[in-house]
Amino acid sequence: MEPWIVFLVIGIALVFDFTNGFHDTANAMATPIATGALKPRTAVALAAVLNLVGAFLSTAVALTISHGIINEDPSGGGIAITPAFVFAGVMAAIIWNVATWLFGLPSSSSHALFGGLIGAAIVGAGFGSIGWGTLVDKVIIPAVAAPLVAGLTAYLATRVVYAVTRRKDGNPDGRGRFKIAQIFSSSLVALAHGTNDAQKTMGVITLTLISAGMLDKSAGVPFWVIVACAVAIALGTYTGGWRIIRTIGTGFTDVKPAQGFAAETSTAVTILASSHMGFALSTTQVASGSVIGSGLGRRGSKVRWGTAGRVAAGWVLTLPASAIAGALFALLSTLGEIGVAIGAVIGAIVLLVMFLVSRRSAVGAHNVLSDVEEASQAVAIRRTRQRKGKSRR
Amino acid sequence: MIDWLGLIGVLLVTIGGALGIVIVVGLGIRLLAVPTRPGRVADARDEEEDEVNLNGRPRLATFFAVVCFVAFAAIIAFGIWLIVPAFH
Predict the structure, then answer these.
(1) Which of A8, A29, A174, B42 stands the most exposed, by the fewest C-beta atoms within 10 Å?
(2) Exposed/middle/buried for A354, CB within 10 Å: 0-12, 13-18, 19+?
């Protein structure tokens, strides 16, 4: 394998890491931004720092991305996955991440990456190279369980938190103070995210280096890989996927401080409990489930099921769509080096087009909470230029 | 094939943990709100009101509120301990 393809794959993997951070800022920070507990810029900066720190904390699961789901070890009966196929899978994941961002859909970056790699592996090595049982156990079932567990927990937590703080005498209950507590609960989610998600990219890069023979098979994750991945995910987080923040923060339901705290606590506890009990759940799906559950739990709040339905449809599509894209890029790669180069150019063009489309209705820190009605439509592309927000509510 | 036991375990631990945390923090915040201006009747906007009249709050209420927040700090420390593999 030519070295330039390895460098291309590393570059593309870091771009994926960036989109991963960018996509997932909302999981931790959408609700504190929505309640005004943190200013939008402050929130994304805090999340970025915690993701950066988190990325250095562990490399223990950096290689799980390939183990089990794709049998990459030739001696184990599988067929070696070349850097060209890793390129195809990761490129597909990036395109799906950017496309879902364009529609303001919170979707799992892990599922996009799994899907892309699975599609590429099927083209490269046939259906036999996929561990279907592992796929069902580790991806499909957790995907269904995540929003349900988090949603039920957040529903109960919201009921309890309002019951505990309710005043019978009709005097002010001081629930605005939950804004301070929100900062801590959402920070915990951001830190947990950093320790988990940056490792996916570290795993992909390390795997590529090993498969290209540039790194010993028994070697750990090189330090420069850790640094590069940490910086990429932190930069992505700081950029802030504002469209997704808007969907989670105001699209599902209107979030109040006590409710936001209940939702974030549910998210943090669900992620920590599941990852420590060997039943890892997707952060994105947990966070979305928590917000919807908390909306059901607070009296007088409404859940916008239309938005929730579109997000759920995005979840169902994530794996097959990125698998198809991964398979197409992998087919190109079978042409050899020229195919990989063509794939890189096509990928870059697709991303550029989506970026230009996004400029027609830009969402940023200044208008992330501008209007509730607009927020409920955030999952549809609007052609009209966005009204300047009247400032945060 | 489905690890029902694992899933139910996660569900129970998650619900227990989350409810414990919101009760601790909720109690602390409720205790801080113990006294208010006498005779003042809240309207709908007070549901999320920041400002609470602190005059005349019993010391015991303040004390137990602080106990609640210290407990919350300990829970956060435990969360960080869980996140950082080097600690365990």
Answers:
(1) B42
(2) middle
Which single residue is written with the structure tokens 């829970």? B75
Chain A / chain B CB contacts < 8 angstroms: 165
Which sign, positive or negative, has the C-alpha torsion A303, A306, A311, A313?
A: positive
Where exactly are the structural domains of chain B?
Answer: 20-34+52-88
CA of A325 to nearest chain B CA: how many angstroms apart?
29
CB atoms B13 and A188 under 8 Å: no
Q: Which positions in chain A touch B15 (Cβ < 8 Å)?
A: 152-153, 156
pLDDT in tens, chain A (393 residues): 578 888 999 999 999 999 999 999 999 999 999 999 999 999 999 999 999 999 988 776 665 554 544 544 444 444 456 788 889 999 999 999 999 999 999 999 888 988 998 898 888 877 777 777 777 877 788 888 899 999 999 999 999 999 999 887 777 778 889 999 999 999 999 998 888 888 888 888 887 887 777 877 667 788 999 999 999 999 999 998 899 999 999 999 999 999 999 999 999 999 999 888 877 788 899 999 999 999 999 988 889 999 999 999 999 999 999 999 999 999 998 888 888 889 999 999 999 999 999 888 888 877 877 654 444 445 544 444 444 444 443
Number of domains in chain A: 1
Q: Which domain holds residue A307?
A: 3-166+173-376
pTM: 0.84
Within-domain flag for A200: yes
From B10, B19, B52, residue closest to A172, measured CB to CB? B52
Q: Is residue A133 part of a domain?
A: yes
C-alpha–C-alpha distance, residues B53 and A320, integer Å: 56
**With an 8 Å Cβ cutoff, is B74 touching chain A?**
no
Distance from the Cα of B7 to chain A's closest Cα (Å) equals 7
ipTM over 0.90: no
Q: If DSSP codes are grouped into helix, strand and coil, which group holds residue A70?
A: strand
